[in-house]
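Render this sequence as a predicted structure.
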Amino acid sequence: MRKYGLSFNLIIACTALLLVGNLGAKEIIYDAEYVKSYNQHKTQWDKEDKSLQKRLADLQAKTGKKPNIIYFMWDDAAYGRVGHPMLSKLTGIDTPNIDRMAKEGMTLTRMYTEPSCTPTRVATMTGRHPIRTGLTQVVFPVHAIGMPNKEVTIAELLKKEGYKTAFYGKYHVGDIDGSYPHQNGYDETLFTIYNQFGSQFFNKDGEDTGATIGFTKPQQDQLYTIDEEFRNPGTIPWAAEAKAGENAKQFNKDYSYEEQLRFVEEVHKRSMEFIKTSANGDSPFLLNYWWHGPNVAGTHRLGRDSDSSGGGDGDGMEYMDKRLGEMFQLLKDEGIDDNTVVIVMADNGPMLEFFPHMSTFGIYTGGKGAFTEGGVRVPAFVRWPGTIEAGSVAGDIIHVTDLYTTFANLGGAKKHIPTDRVIDGIDQTAMFLNGDTKGRRDYVHIYTGPLLAATVKQQFKRHWVGDRPGLAGKGFFDLYRDPKEIQPMMAQFLWAWEPFDSMKARHQNLMEEYPNTPITRGKPFEGIDLLPQEREVVTPYASK
């Protein structure tokens, strides 16, 4: 039973009737903290939403169809690394196309993600914290886990409104049947099963550069190795391609830097072709172009295509920026620039453990995997010429799950959002179209794996990790005055002890009514037609 108390339960019950997006439809079940805020601002937000829906309808009448949506995401970058030329110069790189995008669109200064790759990706796909879907860890070869097929992705929502859908690039939300993008709403796909570390570095080159130790035969114990199958074989798939309704086919031939770049260039080629073929059609489109580039390896191997002095990931940033520039030019050439929403963002903070290949630059403390701001505050920009104000800057909190609900609203698909589960994503159309201070979120819960590690409310943050029983620990931070979280406080925030406890309780109590999905396991690579393999990989997980 939920423990909100009678009065709060009555509020929730009444609010359920008011959160109905369409007559006759069930309400979206939002997390309790948003419901609490909605009750305070209902009249204002409902009025604003009516105005926003009219604007969207007018835009559709003008262009003849709903807006196209391009979602570009890349790996591992600190806030400020791109989009702010003065800061970029500090790390020896130039990204003129992302900088131009910031001038032509909106900079999201408080975009929160999950602390690492897989959790962020499943969160934005489903509009739900990864704890709810069971996929709280990064998927590496061969974990035999994945996003549950019963989750409803943004692609599945938009397809119901006639959108063409494509996924190209780094997927990384499962290596089991049912979790692949062509099984979850995407018409055509070329996708990775794992991240780009293995595809670049699980080989002799990786060992020669010190990026990997002990993978290839020469670096194994030459005298005392008994288990010859301890390492996964170098023939397993890390990339595949498929169309909806078909079996996937393994794309990668091996684990090498050359294969990595072949994949990256093919992803770019197919993304550009998809835009071209979709531009003049009757249907709007959703394109997930999730960069799987060599963001830690540099491009010097095949001829250096960069003036960066920022090391391996500096080269990779400039390489990526050039491809983005080509995409933006294509939107203009095809005449769909003003009817295409483009969001460009990183999935989490930098991988600090990979210095010096990866820059340690950061305004905030921590990087990939951390619950401090440096792990979850990322560069993010959104552009929609003529609709989103050029050069605007939003200081509102936005979480990566919000893109799910916002894209659904922009595409007229909000009525298709499932109503049998908690949705963490909040519709941020008001912020996108009306600008700074118009966001609908002033909080975020931050998980590391299955652990609720911290909570942000307004400009304040409380670390749950390290808290002590019986008395609030010295784990409160003012993120405006102490963005690096180096000056924990307690006495000054005794007023906030119980309000933060209540936030946590409301969030966790809702999980009793709508339980989290356990981790989903299966036999690895089922549903993928494999190239010849050295041997079959047998895992202990599939039977669980």
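Summary. DSSP finds 15 helices and 19 strands in the chain. The first helix runs from residue 6 to 18.
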